[in-house]
Amino acid sequence: MESADDVTEDIREPLLRPADGGPLPEFRPGRHITPAEADAPGTTRAYSLTGAARSDTLGTYRLAVRRIDGGVFSPVVHRGLTAGARRLVTVPSGLFAIPVDHDQPVVLLAAGVGITPFLGHLEPPASTGGSVPEVVPHHGNRNRRTHPFADRLRKLDEAIARLTVIDHYSRPDAEDVIGVHYSAFGRVTAEHIDEELIRRRARFYIRGPQAMIDAVTAGLTASRRPEVRHLR
Fold this sequence. Notes:
Order of helices and strands: EEEEEEEEHEEHEHEEHEHE
Strand content: 25-35%
Mean pLDDT: 84
Number of domains: 2
CATH topology of the largest domain: Rossmann fold
Largest sheet: 6 strands, parallel
Structural class: alpha/beta
Oligomer: single chain
Radius of gyration: 18 Å
Distance between the termini: 25 Å
Shape: globular
Number of helices: 5
CATH architecture of the largest domain: 3-Layer(aba) Sandwich
CATH class of the largest domain: Alpha Beta
Number of strands: 15
Helix content: 10-25%
CATH superfamily of the largest domain: Nucleotide-binding domain of ferredoxin-NADP reductase (FNR) module
Low-confidence stretches: none
Strand order of the largest sheet: 13-12-11-10-14-15
């Protein structure tokens, strides 16, 4: 581990570099890696990659780890993993990946740290000037204190002309101002989706708690039947 940043009060983002200093395999947006303890390689957890998916000289991986009390890896990452620590890590994998070459609008629906696999979909065009279809992320959080990657998403919103980030706060603090710090009050629901995007046959990708996935999917498919994919 080269370094680690505290993203929120309960999410940490380690930066991993190969011990031999060599290049890393590229990955498609939505893929994850699986770290393991050297003395217990059978005990693993998968974490979505948060950095740019495509690079000529990909030398590091970033992943976001939310602290889970009683968890296997997250307490170690948050309290005991320091720069220079080594872990076994798989190459990026996963059956689900967001297509990058198509013309349909894309709607990303995420809660909390669930936004992480979507960052890799947005960062390459922001850094290289490439194009993406119209993309509308709906990101649900309680408030600014628990809002991961808020500044990063804001910069992407400014850099990508066809990106519109919509932030939802379910428990805003007194200092959180709607229209300034967030866009909509409450949790992410199907009712927040622009009907025009549905008419244009947008692709929908959802990442979050199962209750959110079930509720949003039911709301979207009840009468409108768009293409909905769940990112697990």
